[in-house]
Every structure is written in C-alpha cells, then in structure tokens.
C-alpha cells in the first residue's frame, strides 16, 4: 500500500527534532534529504523549508533566549545559524572538522553553543563572532578532544553554569567544567550501558544524569556523589532536587 505523505514532507530519514519552548506549536526537523523544516503542529503544515547544507542534517537546536534563532548541524562539516523569520537569508556558517553528531545551546549564556563531532571532539562557538562572509571562518572559543570515538550526545546542567556532560560510542560519559573557555574533565565513568547514545540532566533534579546506550538499559548517575563535583559545585548541591520515590 502506498503511503501518502503530507505536502512538503521530507524525502529521506528525519535525523533530528527540536521543539521551540516559546512558540510551543513550532517544531524543527533535520533530515538526510539535506533540508531543515519548521512545522506548525496546530495546522499540521510546514511553514519554512531551508536548504543551507550539502549533506545530511543530523541535529537542530533552538536558542532558548531568542526563539527565532535556529542552529542546524550537518555531515557537510558545518553548523548553520538562521533566523527562521528570514529563511532566504544565507545565515551564518561555523566550520567544524568532522560530521556533526549533536548541538547544545548553553542555557546560561545566550551567545554560546557547543557542537559534538564524529571524530570525538567538542567545539564551542560564540555567535557574536559569526561572519556572513563565507571566506572568513569563525574561530571557535575552544575545541577539546573529548572522547576516543564519536560524541553522540551532550547535556548542559540546567542549574550549574559551565557544567557539561558528554556521552560517546567509546562507552564513556564525562563531566566537563567549561569555565573561562578553558575546559577540563572533572569526572568520567563507564556506566556499563554499551555505546552511549544519549545523556540528559534532569531539570527537576539537576545533579541526576540519565544515560542511554546500546545495551538497552537506562542508567542514572548522581554526579554530586563525585568528590570533584562536590568540591567545585558544593554550593549548588544543597539546591538539588531528589528523585521521586517509586
């Protein structure tokens, strides 16, 4: 039986999704068809289509401080920043050294985001340094060789500034202090989840990190149990929530 797709649907796999937190009816999608689309879920229609990449688009992320600003990351080794109100504008390109795996805006700074790559690196950019001149590459704030394999997922701590978790197909999860754009690894763990595909700090219990991997089991890491975390972020630990009792 032939499947009928809605008008303006993607023509290949959808690889990434992101809800807009201010305009809750807006959903962005990234696709292997090299396009990024914005959908109005109330009307179930595509409102914007952007074709700024030359290879698969792996990830999209809305700026939490400026709801019209959208990042997209691609296998073409670029991250594109666009104001979706002006989809025909070429936007701003940030060159990276490998295929993009994931994107994350810093929830404590409206100007900064990080991008993780297939080659195990994590790079940070300040969007104020962006240039629309394609011949002028935007320099990153920092680049770290975070893992031995692809960095598949990242999560900023919602309570503690400069605390970033990374997960990788090298089976490791690491915690990074990004203060002053001089990142340092303060804790690492093999959660026995196999290749790690997803990490996420809890908004309600911000020292709990959820971890998902190839073994199919969900792991929880109370990162405040780490001496280095307690020493550096002790003033925040008293504010943390507790997991609800089952």
Automatic annotation (TrEMBL):
Q: Pfam families per the record?
A: WD40 (PF00400)
Superkingdom is Eukaryota
Q: Where are the WD repeats?
A: 7-49, 50-85, 144-186, 189-231
GO CC: one term? nucleus
Is Phosphoprotein there in the keyword field? yes
Q: Which UniProt keywords apply?
A: Phosphoprotein, Repeat, WD repeat
Q: A biological process (GO) annotation for this entry?
A: rRNA processing
Q: PANTHER family attached here?
A: PERIODIC TRYPTOPHAN PROTEIN 1, PERIODIC TRYPTOPHAN PROTEIN 1 HOMOLOG
Q: What is this protein called?
A: Peroxisome biogenesis protein 7
**Origin species:** Nicotiana attenuata
The record lists the lineage as: Eukaryota, Viridiplantae, Streptophyta, Embryophyta, Tracheophyta
What gene codes for this chain?
A: PEX7_2
């Amino acid at each position: 039986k032939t499947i009928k797709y809605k008008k303006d649907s993607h023509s290949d796999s959808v690889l990434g999704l992101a809800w807009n937190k201010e305009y809750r009816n807006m959903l962005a999608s990234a696709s292997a068809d090299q396009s990024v689309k914005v959908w109005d879920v109330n009307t179930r229609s595509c409102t914007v289509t952007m074709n700024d990449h030359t290879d698969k688009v792996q990830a999209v992320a809305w700026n939490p401080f400026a709801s019209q600003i959208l990042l997209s990351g691609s296998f073409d080794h670029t991250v594109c920043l666009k104001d979706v109100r002006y989809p025909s504008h070429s936007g701003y390109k940030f060159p990276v050294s490998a295929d993009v795996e994931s994107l994350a805006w810093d929830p404590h700074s409206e100007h900064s985001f990080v991008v993780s790559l297939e080659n195990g690196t994590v790079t940070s950019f300040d969007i104020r340094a962006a240039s629309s001149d394609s011949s002028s590459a935007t320099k990153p704030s920092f680049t770290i060789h975070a893992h031995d394999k692809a960095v598949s997922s990242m999560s900023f701590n919602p309570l503690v500034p400069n605390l970033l978790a990374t997960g990788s197909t090298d089976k490791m999860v690491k915690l990074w202090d990004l203060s002053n754009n001089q990142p340092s690894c303060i804790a690492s763990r093999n959660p026995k989840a196999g290749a790690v595909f997803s990490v996420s700090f809890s908004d309600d219990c911000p020292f709990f990190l959820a971890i998902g991997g190839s073994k199919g089991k969900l792991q929880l890491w109370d990162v405040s149990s780490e001496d280095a975390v307690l020493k550096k972020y002790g003033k925040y630990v008293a504010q943390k929530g507790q997991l609800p009792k089952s």
